[in-house]
Amino acid sequence: MPSLAVVEASNAAFSPGYVPVIVVVGGTSGVGQAMAEALARQTKGHAHIIIVGRNATAAERILASFPKPTESDGWAHEFVQCDASSMASVRVVCAYLSARLKTINFLIFTAGGPAANSLMESSVTPEGLNSHLAMRYFMRYLFTKELLPLVVCAKEIGQHAHVMTVLGAGFGMPIRTTDLGIHEAQSRSIKLLQGIFPSAAAVKGLVAGVGYNDGLVAHFAALHPELAFTHIQPGQVLTEGGSSIPLGWFFGTALLDPQLPQESNLPHPGTPFKQDECAKYMIYGLLDVERGLFIRDNYGNIISAHVFNPDLKNTSLDLASPTAQKFGVLNGVPMKGYGGSDASVAALIEYTEQVLATIH
């Protein structure tokens, strides 16, 4: 793993000749806050940083701490309010940003699930989505789909262009194509016991979102081989609000999926990071690549990677491949720590599009 000194030196070398546009969904607390703050310091404020979240008071405090350049070179620091558990709200924000921005260089997702990822919470959003999947997958998919044209524009003019989802990379959680929306698990949840035992729907939603994020980056990386897409895991993080411990990984591996492939080699979360330290490793991964799909651990190390053929731009994953059904294989290439298969990702994306088509 790279030392913190190596990571800091690598990050310090980032000095773009343009004002980067950085969108952080979930930037009002935790790792997202720390990443936004670190990128503001790294660019000495010469960046257009947009924090998307619910807490306007926290956002104002964070933005006020950013360096404020005296030169008028296009820098801006702003907050856009959004209930990211609502796909209707996400669509409104995407339309707003698409109308105002010409490019996005870094699109970063760090927002967690409901009630600080509580395993006791098994609610369904007003739009009918499992509350964990809404935050951990659906909103990330919708933001990516709607804002990707702006990321493409950044790449076309020779700038950085990277989509990063910070969640649970490297665990190789298979995408189970039955009950993709966790509806069966939701129906089995016994409300009388909620608050006493972990909710099956909450645990399944929390864990399934990990594999779904593998599918998310695989899908969009196949369609846009010129861009960089990363799924990364932060490990255990000591946030300002307390310790965030990945209990979902434990429940997912020990209780829900006891037959995970042995080659998954589930990564150990390691020593807890302070959120500022964790952010440095996340940024190290953010700045380290030019194009392709990357699965990274909490130190920014590449667990596995795949660069798609640019001649096959705007094509989907290869469902005709003999390995299309095999977990942990992407376009015929074995991927350590990757939980998708071409067939399961295709099923996930088809389901996702059907669900989002019903929400306005």
UniProtKB/TrEMBL annotation:
GO molecular function list:
oxidoreductase activity
Q: Does the keyword Lipid biosynthesis apply?
A: no
Q: InterPro entries given for it?
A: NAD(P)-bd_dom_sf, SDR_fam, Sec_Metab_Biosynth_Oxidored
Sorted alphabetically, the keyword list is: Oxidoreductase
Q: Tell me which stretches of the chain form a coiled coil.
A: none
Gene3D superfamilies documented for this protein:
NAD(P)-binding Rossmann-like Domain
Which Pfam family, just one, is annotated for this protein?
Answer: adh_short
Listed name of the protein: NAD(P)-binding protein
What species was this sequence derived from? Mycena sanguinolenta
